[in-house]
Task: inverse folding
């Protein structure tokens, strides 16, 4: 069997690695030029995602790129602590969540795939898809065509493949927040922040997050509530002007947020945040969706990349163990949909807490303290980060799909 995997972020090469492990040839088609992994936002990969990487023989990539993160500490605009939560159920060997640059992990997964002999093609934008009962053909922007037995759409929240699989699917939904991210190098302010923790501030005008690195830097982000920023508005300001605006938004809040941003540099700006509540169809004929193309949670969930890595493992095992491709894709949907849609819904609720409204600001801190004490706790969240996908075959595995 030959699978064409559209998308070279995290989901695409991870899926290719999983398919390779069950004997399925994979070709990764990425629209953009090769990245060196040195630009873009930072994120934290939860233990359930690290476990999936481990099953792919690739956890060392995250360990090499990231640094440990144990907890999230949430404070209000006044500086009062609202709550504290673990960043997940550690792996059996004690490994906790890891924070890293997203592009580092994506580039490392691409390199790992190539090292294992997987064909990865950059600047190969898919512009059309033709599918039938026994195979699929894609047309690239340069007019060339490729055919395979299966097409995997790993092309993100604005997926082109999703529109082919489910033409009636709703577009990605703007969650009311625009994201900005940056880094402050070699700053004394890093020592003022607890090590191995994200410091989150539910500010009066924006939501701020910061994490010290082992090298004495601080990585940070700002979520700004409001209408989506247009392309024209984005280019009308320089990164420095956007940074100065963020400092103004954070200035009234207690804590180091404004000073950290003032001393830092933006690496991501005016990025409108979207999620994908529900896609009715994840597969059709010989096409299937994984990762954000199927179920994009708000970044507030902390689960986007982890869910994509889980998808990769589950899809590969379903293709390995099912009798036909259609049976495999049905099994994949059944195994994944309930979990991921529940996490997407939780992420949407988390995002809405950053947009309190005029009346909400007066009572938000009181409500949030109650939420973090009684509702959103380490115990109540363990089902998310304590989940472990399985690689072991069934007791009597069926012939591989498509064989």
Result:
């Amino acid at each position: 069997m030959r699978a064409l995997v559209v998308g070279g972020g995290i989901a695409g090469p991870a899926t290719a690695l999983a398919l390779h492990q069950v004997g399925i040839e994979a070709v990764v088609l990425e629209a953009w030029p090769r990245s060196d992994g040195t630009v873009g936002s930072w994120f934290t990969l939860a233990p359930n995602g690290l476990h999936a990487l481990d099953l792919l023989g690739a956890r060392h990539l995250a360990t090499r790129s990231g640094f440990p993160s144990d907890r999230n500490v949430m404070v209000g605009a006044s500086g009062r602590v609202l709550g504290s939560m673990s960043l997940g159920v550690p792996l059996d060997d004690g490994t906790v969540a890891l924070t890293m640059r997203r592009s580092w992990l994506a580039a490392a997964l691409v390199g790992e795939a190539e090292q294992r002999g997987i064909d990865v093609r950059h600047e190969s934008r898919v512009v059309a898809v033709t599918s039938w009962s026994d195979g699929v053909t894609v047309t690239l922007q340069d007019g060339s065509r490729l055919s395979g037995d299966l097409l995997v759409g790993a092309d993100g929240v604005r997926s082109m493949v999703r529109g082919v699989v489910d033409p009636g699917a709703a577009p990605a939904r703007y969650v009311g927040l625009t994201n900005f991210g940056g880094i402050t190098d070699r700053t004394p302010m890093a020592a003022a922040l607890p090590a191995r923790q994200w410091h989150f501030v539910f500010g009066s005008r924006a939501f701020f997050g910061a994490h010290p690195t082992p090298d004495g830097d601080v990585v940070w982000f700002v979520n700004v509530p409001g209408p989506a920023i247009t392309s024209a508005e984005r280019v009308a300001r320089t990164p420095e002007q956007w940074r100065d605006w963020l400092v103004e938004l954070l200035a009234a809040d207690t804590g180091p947020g404004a000073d950290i941003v003032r001393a830092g540099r933006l690496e991501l700006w005016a990025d409108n945040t979207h999620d994908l509540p529900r896609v009715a169809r994840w597969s059709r004929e010989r096409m299937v969706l994984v990762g954000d193309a199927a179920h994009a949670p708000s970044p507030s969930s902390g689960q986007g990349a982890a869910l994509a890595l889980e998808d990769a493992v589950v899809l590969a095992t379903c293709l390995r163990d099912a009798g036909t491709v259609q049976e495999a894709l049905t099994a994949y949907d059944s195994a994944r949909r309930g979990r991921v849609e529940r996490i997407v819904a939780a992420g949407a609720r988390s995002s809405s807490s950053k947009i309190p409204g005029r009346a909400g600001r007066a009572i938000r801190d009181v409500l949030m303290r109650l939420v973090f004490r009684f509702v959103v706790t380490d115990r109540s969240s363990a089902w998310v980060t304590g989940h472990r996908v399985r690689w072991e075959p069934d007791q009597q595995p069926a012939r591989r799909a498509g064989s």
Notes: Residues 17 and 113 are 6 Å apart (CA to CA).
